[in-house]
Amino acid sequence: MAQLGDQQVLVLPEGSKRILGRDAQRINILVGKAVANAVRSTLGPKGMDKMLVDEIGDITITNDGATILKEMSIEHPAGKMLVEVAKTQDSETGDGTTTAVVIAGELLKKAEELLDQEIHPSIIIKGYKMAEEKAIEILDQVSEPVTIDNEDILKKVCITTMSSKGAVGKSKEKLSNIIVEAVKQVAENTDGKIVINKDYIKVEKKEGGDVDESTLIKGVVIDKERVHSGMPRKIENAKIALIDSALEIKETETDAEIRITSPEQLEAFLDQEEKMLREMVEKIKQANANVVFCQKGIDDMAQHFLAKAGIFAVRRVKKSDMEKLAKATGATIITNLKELTEKDLGFAEVVEERKVSGEAMTFVEGCKDPKAVTVLIRGGTEHVVNEAERAVEDGIVAVVSAIEMGKIVTGGGAIETELAVRLREYATQIGGREQLAIEAFASALEIIPRTLAESAGMDPIDTLVQLRSSHSNGEKNVGVHVFNAKVEDMLKYDVIEPTKVKRQALASAAEAAEMILKIDDIIAASRMKEPSQGPQGMEGMGGM
């Protein structure tokens, strides 16, 4: 609404809501803190789990930050920005989602205290930017190198990442061995640089059994069964054809009408269809293939001919699985069946249909140096197997992150304390009002060791005092050992994390906090009127 003399001029549509200045900042900060508090208790190996129930009653039990925030259906725009932080962290590094959101929430909390001291948001943002750049610089200085050949260190990185997932518990060691072996298997050396495409590690889950029964298959597991019971259940020395076209009679692309006026014509028509299908199967036989994976459908008649020829066939295989099969077996995906030759076939020692938890699955194993592998996860219940799957996926991305950047740091809140101590020293060199913002950034980082101490039943203030003292004396690896409930050297206990995880968490948390602090005006359009209800204003803006 604007004023022109005595006349009111309507600028925004009727029913719109507008919140200005400090009120807008306070609401956004309040929402940011609320979202961070929602996941804060899940941090670390002794973090608590959340039970999330969606609209249709499906239950998810997890302490994975990204999963919790995704399932919470947060409505407020500022809250959605923190959800984006978690999603980015999850897709980039697989771990540290809770860390990123908790730090972002704490940065907003500390900024609110500075705003109360009449410090302008632009000064806080400038100080935060300076602190973020310095923190990343310090992070690179204190990091230790790691390569793909350091299997022991990579396993420790993996165990640290999975330690917060209660479902894997005693199986961490076995799963970390599986994950490191899987990552090393799919790693490729391109121009002297290690390239790892984590999409070529397929994670397949099946309820039943124990998490300890999870295995690594050096090949691909397809959650499909053979198309015909007359086909062999097991093929040794498999020659595999990958076909991206239907083994069916195609309809004509143009509208056509076929007039059949006698039984002889109908019989000839059916005979021709059968002949075409027989020729398709003959083409596969001529190429010496004894296993067929088809991305499209396979006609019933073609299934019969394939079974008679002793060929194992699976239909409607997902495109992503076809790509993994090509990578694992060395086969070429063929679009036109007429062009299939023996050179296009892939090889595996065994292709077999096996029952897992009462459901048939196709195992393609014994490939020569496969660049695609499958981790088959087992678990007693649906919730256990789902949480184990999330743990394995986090472990895979953490190991890949460690190898890609080639740097690691000590976990257990040690690195956050070291950064906080060094940032406070840096703040004294800067001076001006920005110094206060840099000190606030340092204090915000200490929320991580503080939360870990709280989850272990330790006194958070005493813990922080001990940590600061140790780090000021140059003991950069001292952190919170939650299982012993003591402040100890975390390197001795093999608590190691990829530098990339910490770097991404710092960058995304700082950027989200800076973006939210820059907002001084919220304009929300009115919701569409529903027949049975009156107009809704900004109710959704405040909900979570």
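Above is the first protein from milestone M3; the second protein from the same milestone is given next.
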Amino acid sequence: MKRLLECVPNFSEGRDLAVIEKITAVIEAVDGVELLDVDPGAATNRTVVTFVGEPDAVLDAAVAAGKKSAELIDMSKHSGEHPRFGAMDVCPLVPIAGLSMEETAEYARELGQRLGEEAGLTIYLYENAARRPERQNLANVRRGEYEGLKERLKDAEWAPDFGPADFQTKTGATAVSARNFLVAYNINLNTTSARRANAVAFDVREKGRIKKAPCPLTGEVVKDADGNTVWEPGQLKAVKGIGWFIEEFGIAQVSMNLTDITVTSVHEAFDAVCASADRRGMRVSGSELVGLIPLEAMLDAGRHYLRKQSRSTGVSDAELVKIAAKTLGLDDLKKFEPQKSIIEYVLATKQGGGRLAAMSVQGFVEETASESPAPGGGSIAANLGALGAALGTMVANLSSHKRGWDERWEEFSDWAERGKVCHQELVQLIDRDTEAFERIMLSWRLPTGTDAEKSAQKEAVQAATLFAIKAPFRVMEVSLESMKVAKAMADVGMDASASDAGVAALCARSAVMGAFLNVRINAGDLEDKAVVADFEKRGTEIVAQAQSMETEILRLVEKKL
């Protein structure tokens, strides 16, 4: 698996676009790094930058950005709504693929050391990269902000982990971490009162609020036996939040960091703020994302709100994202663009993935008919299987909305979800088959001048051939799985769509048989005959099952025609 590391540095400049562009330019200049998002905020005077790549390239880009921020930003002249203490204020690393948190923490420590030595920045390590427990929480590390940093550095307990230990007037200090994917999320209120927005934030954030004596006249802070202030925890775990007034929009917001969306999701945070605001006589008017969000977080939100409507959740990702965006009010302050806000979509756009699957029907047909050897039978089989799985899903979704069947919506929603999993993977397999062909062609072009090169080429050819067998074999497996949905819909789905369930079965069976032809022809070049025999045996069984299921499904369909 390719190792991907995300870096999300926050720079204390959100108003001078020329400065921001110079910083992002040095990031883009590093080979192997993709700049995904640049999100400046005038009120906060802060810009959140997101880029991703292989670990070494990401560290190089982060160091270059740290150096450039030190040249261009003067913290002695900075002001803004957001807590901050440095020019490059924070620089967290986030594991995206092929990396553990432990490995990411080591990269964060390496980055901290390099920023200290090469960029001359005062560095504190926090969260998973922290070397001391009291430095795990960013709020502790940044307490007092820039204005209190000079005095704090006099305390030996708060000596930095790397870089200058004396106060750097121009650059302040930088916090470097390894963390899980953090969603920066602001919820808009129909009030201009930062105090009331803060009250809502205290209701929902994990830290909660300072506990005070019940007497409203004194309102004395409650202390424990050791004289420490007692806090009343808020409703949501893994949530940090404050309330503030945003002058550029003329509203107050609850500004939150969702530090672990597997603990508290975006939609859970939104619903909790809505309930708290309502209790306090306010209303949520919408929300905004700062930076990027994982696709699954948006899909989860879409499913959540569809379930509340007793509607099928087995709809397209695009529909789920639309439902989530509309319910969360992500268009309230500015247009929400999924292709620019969802990390997987941004990466796909930049990397140009899914060439065939992204074509129009006419374009795909004409590309198939051209002199090019790809797409070939394997891609066509995958496409046919995807269409069959999509048809079964369609019948499930239509059945979930049938008048008089309201109590059965979850039954059909579950079938639609199963069908969707199948057609989504089969769409990916359309390009996988073409990739397999390209791998074989590339392996045959490797040099063979020496014995070592001949051996390496032979090994590459065999690996590419195995990949070219596995791709269509997976088409067989997934297409067969999709036939379970078609069978259920032929049996219990709405009668008016019985023919669609039949066509779904025909497509899936043809996809299975067509993909098996590809498996067999590609297996001819594989030298490991035991592996070939295994694919042949399992493939024959899948074909037999598909043919049997097709017969059974068509029998069910005939009863309804």
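Note on the second protein: The domain at 183-348 is CATH 3.30.70.670 (Alpha-Beta Plaits).
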